[in-house]
Each structure stands twice: as C-alpha cells, then as structure tokens.
C-alpha cells in the first residue's frame, strides 16, 4: 500500500504564522525602498528634462545672462517662458491657475508661483530667484504627497555655465527643513545627493549622517546605509 505524506493542520498553521511574521517585518522596508526608488527616478528625470530644455533655450535665445538686463519680475518671467517652451507642459500656472508648491515643516503652507507649470507627468516646477535663479520641483505635483523638503520637494540652481545645477552635496541645512524626520537636509542638498549617489538614504539616518547600522553618510565617502 502506497503511503501518502502530508502536513497536519497544526503544522500548516505554524508555517503560515511564520510567513506572516516575516512579511510583517520585511514588507514595510520593501515598500519604503520601492517608494524611494520611484522618487529617485522622478528626480533624475526632471533634472535631465530641465537641463535639456535650458540647453535648447540657450541655443535659440543665446546665453542666459543676455536674456534680460538686471533682475526684475519680467526677467524671471522671460527666463521661465524660454525654458518652458522646450518642456512638455500640461498647465501653465498664473493668476487664474494658481500653483501652490508646499514646502514647510507640516505641508500646510507654501508659495504661490506665477512662473510655474505642471508638466505632462504631473511634476510641478517653478522658477524663482534669490541671488541665483533656481527651480523648485515637487515630483508629486501640488496636491499630492508629503510636500516636504527632501521627500518630494527639491531645488536646483540655474546658471549659464552650469545649466540646471546641483548646489550642494554636503549634509548641511539651508534653513528650509524644520521637521526632524527629514534630518536637516535642504531641498538643494537632497537633490544633489540623489543625482550624485542615486539614493535617499539620508532619510534613514537619525541625524542626517548616522545610519541605523551606525555607519556615517558623507559626500566624500560612504554614500549608503546598506
């Protein structure tokens, strides 16, 4: 007589229980890593698209410094219009279609930008100036995501020589970040870190540099918490 081997109900329940515990421990980390990977891809994409658009605008209109004399509101508008001409845009923001890019410690406030647009993929961009021209980018658009620096809101500098540029890769604070969960990274720092090192591991740290395994993140050395 052929003997058929099988598991008892108790054994099956034990295995299912173990699988459940393992899933509980691993799935949140897996989900978080997947989310970070998607954000990194979005940041790299908008950085590439902005740079290409700026290069095309300078080819057509000449160097950035010659687009207007001095700095005023019309200069900023002209600069944005010439770059956005070469972007895939679904909506231009203005007094009728206002774009509020939120960027503070709880996502409740923000700035209304006229020199702004929503790109075809939903990313919100705005051009501003404080000493230098710079782009503010919300990869989730204006009404989704956390609206927090280093998480879904980033900034890039803009100059005739460097194009859309990475302002910093240092683990320092520029004053934009006040929520402890985002470790003191400014929107410039985070954008530069992502483009240079391809991850958002600064969000895993306890203080901007110290990983859970006690290794330290440094722009000139260790770039990951793995």
Write a short abstract of this structure.
Helix content is 34%, strand content 17%. It contains three helices and eight strands.
End-to-end gap: 55 Å
What does the average pLDDT come to? 77
What share of the residues does DSSP label as strand, in percent?
Answer: 15-25%
Structural class: alpha+beta
DSSP summary: helix tally: 3
Helix and strand string, N-terminal first? HHEEEEEEEEH
What is the molecular shape? elongated
What is the number of beta strands? 8
Rg, nearest Å: 23 Å
Question: What composes the largest sheet?
Answer: 6 strands, antiparallel
Helix share, percent: 25-40%
Number of separate structural domains: 1
Strand order of the largest sheet: 1-4-5-6-7-8
Show unreliable segments.
171-183
Q: Keyphrases for this structure?
A:
226 residues; alpha+beta; 6-stranded antiparallel sheet; 3 helices; 8 strands; elongated
Write the layout of secondary structure elements.
Layout (H helix, E strand, L loop, with lengths): L8 H53 L11 H12 L4 E5 L5 E3 L9 E3 L2 E4 L4 E7 L1 E7 L14 E7 L3 E3 L21 H11 L29
Antiparallel strand pairs: 1-4, 2-3, 4-5, 5-6, 6-7, 7-8
How would you describe the overall organization of this protein?
By secondary structure, this protein is of the alpha+beta class. It has one domain (10-204). The chain is built from three helices and eight strands. The model is unreliable at 171-183 (pLDDT under 50).
């Amino acid at each position: 007589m052929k003997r058929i081997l099988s598991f008892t109900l108790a054994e099956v329940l034990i295995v299912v229980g173990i699988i459940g515990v393992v899933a509980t421990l691993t799935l949140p980390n897996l989900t978080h890593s997947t989310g970070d990977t998607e954000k990194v891809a979005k940041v790299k994409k908008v950085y590439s698209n902005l740079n290409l658009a700026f290069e095309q605008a300078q080819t057509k209109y000449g160097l950035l410094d010659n687009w207007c004399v001095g700095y005023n509101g019309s200069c900023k508008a002209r600069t944005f219009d010439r770059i956005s001409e070469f972007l895939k845009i679904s909506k231009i923001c203005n007094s009728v279609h206002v774009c509020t890019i939120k960027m503070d410690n709880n996502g409740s406030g923000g700035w209304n930008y006229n020199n702004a647009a929503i790109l075809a993929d939903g990313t919100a961009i705005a051009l501003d100036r404080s000493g230098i021209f710079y782009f503010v980018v919300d990869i989730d658009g204006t009404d989704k995501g956390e609206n927090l620096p280093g998480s879904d809101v980033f900034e890039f500098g803009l100059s005739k020589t460097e194009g859309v540029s990475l302002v910093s890769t240092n683990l320092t604070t520029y004053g934009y970040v006040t929520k402890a969960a985002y470790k003191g990274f400014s929107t410039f720092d985070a954008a530069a870190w992502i483009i240079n090192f391809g991850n958002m591991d600064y969000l895993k740290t306890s203080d901007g540099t110290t990983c859970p395994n006690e290794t330290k993140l440094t722009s000139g050395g260790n770039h990951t918490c793995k």
